[in-house]
Write a structure and sequence with these properties.
Blueprint: H1 6-20, H2 25-38, H3 46-56, H4 61-94, H5 102-108, H6 116-122, H7 125-132, H8 138-144, H9 150-158, H10 168-186, E1 189-191, E2 208-210, H11 213-220, H12 226-245, E3 259-261, E4 266-268, E5 274-275, H13 283-299, H14 308-317, H15 321-332, H16 335-348, H17 370-380, H18 384-399, H19 403-411, E6 413-417, E7 422-425, E8 434-438, H20 447-468, H21 481-492, H22 495-499, H23 510-544, H24 550-568, H25 570-573, H26 586-589, H27 596-611, H28 616-623, H29 631-639, H30 646-660
Parallel strand pairs: 6-8
Antiparallel strand pairs: 1-2, 3-4, 4-5, 7-8
Helix pairs in contact: 1-2, 1-3, 2-7, 4-5, 4-9, 10-13, 11-12, 15-23, 16-30, 18-19, 20-21, 21-27, 23-24, 23-27, 23-30
Length: 661
Amino acid sequence: MSNIDNGCVQATLEALQQKHGDACMERARRSVPQAAALWTAHDGTPQEFQAFCLDHFIADSTALRNMADQLERNMESLLGCYNKMTVDLNLPIHVDGPEPTPLDEMFGAFDPSAHFNDDMFEQKIAFAVILNFPFYTLEEKNTLGADWSRQQWAYARLGDLFTARVPADVQQRLTAQLSGADNYISNYNIMMGHLVDDQGHHPFPDMALITHWGLRDELKTHYNEGDSGLAKQRIIYQVMRRIIDQSIPGEVINCPDYDWNPYSNTLTGKEGSPRQGTPEPDTRYRTFLENFHAMQQVDKYNPRYPTAIARAFDEGMEVSYEEIERLFDEFCSSEQVGEVAKLIEQRLGRKLEPFDIWYDGFKSRSTLNEEDLSAQTRRLYPTREAFASQGMPHILKQLGFGKEKSDFICSHVTVDPSRGAGHAWESAMRTDNARLRTRIGKEGMDYKGYNIAVHEFGHNVEQTITLHDVDHYIMKGVPNTAFTEALAFVFQTRDLDFLGPQGGAKDDNASQKEALETLDIFWGCYEIMGVALVDMYSWHWLYEHPDATVAELKSQVIAIAQEVWNKYYARYLGEENSPILAIYSHMIDSPLYLANYPYGHIIQFQLEQQLKGKVVADEIQRIYPAGRLTPQHWMRHAVGNEVSTHPLLDAATTAVATVKK
């Protein structure tokens, strides 16, 4: 795209040296080529480029700092308002209420910030930023950043603002595609009361469960019901298999008109007559492929991050694809997996089956009746207002937050009833609120909704602290979403504690309780790492086969899921070639996000080790204002060590021995 050659770059550098001397040339030698790489004929001639650099390069350190402060103020206003508009336009789609209209879906697919990048380059604001705050690669941030001041980190984050020139129409098409994918998943419910087994029984009450989250969480609740619970788990597993291979009848998706036997894949109408169903027409994989094609259009405008994979890992997570793959392989191949699997087998008194990747028996609630828990949560939180006014302050008090800080956080979080599974949405300016969404039924918040709400509130606490307590707006947030997931997990694992003594019996044996918590984190990591690898390998395959058809992608995703299963899971969980790792909805509505979950679990465990014997609130308020350092720098600040699987692996060995006692 650029019309600036190396000769012009060198001439510009010489002119800058003559004007400002040698002191600022190290920065100029980095920034001028970066600005030149994105300057096109539309922006001006090479002579105009050189004149722009001479006019807008700032050598004086005080003036440079003033410029940084001004940029941060303006970015908060722009990005904050864009974010608020997006939240408002998506309310009919994300929040429970009247069914979204076609116009709602059109507005939900609209990206208010689609022209932001174009406008910043058109006005040459982007060039002024690039020229004065150059970009540093991930490797450079990790090596040089150890000696940077907070101001230097802020300058480096300003250098991350404009690394690509993605046209507005391309960005808008990507937003529309991902919005459509999210809408597809948000309305993918299975009517559980209409499932029948081979004996014609209806094992489940009437309830709509979203795939995959609701199905997975329902499966987890049946570990204390003996053979009847096992039968329910098997039928859910069969439903999942039908979704993966797309043999599920389209008639049963989000529709209560038919009874469905997922084993025989037959339908029965309300009048009792059999009905031939029509398989879902590979919509799941068509959406996946359309996500890829939308990302491809963005690729060509990203010289720094030329693939969705690079943007997800090097830019988004700031951890390389190869490092994530290495960590996950190291963990899933460990001898500790076999030790924990054998322990679960002993606790269940049977051979493990594929759905036991979701074994939930290490949690305190695994011995409790979920209906009793739901009765309690509905009584405590009959409405979203009740959770906002009573639940959130109570949680923060339990963690050790003072009233002033608790009131501040709660006043910056808005609770909404979710149409989908639930999520948290951050605010991007200090005058706006973060959002907490979870499912809230007519009778109140059931235990599943409460558990999700506690998780999402952990996100909201992070989002509020890292917006209001970080010293530079441009440093707001965390290194990547795994770090907010880590705090959400810290909250979620304490959900029964927040309910009080009535939430379940407390285990007076502290070492047993700690061992069980360790094993719960361990097994959660093992489960989601395989899923993340399927997601990663599927995208890798797509980039190697960019002309793939929907049928080819479907076949390959299932094959990849089976290969990962056979490598890491079949030995312990049986059934060669199980495709179950391909069930996760994130693969469809949140491309390349899944690796954040296990990475977050690893971070969570290291955080939990740091929290031992300390007031949780004090540590949260010490750690999270560090803001958006790179992951390794953040972890050194937080716990004194880099991200590693070894603490969790070592603790798992000890935990197995403790539980066996």
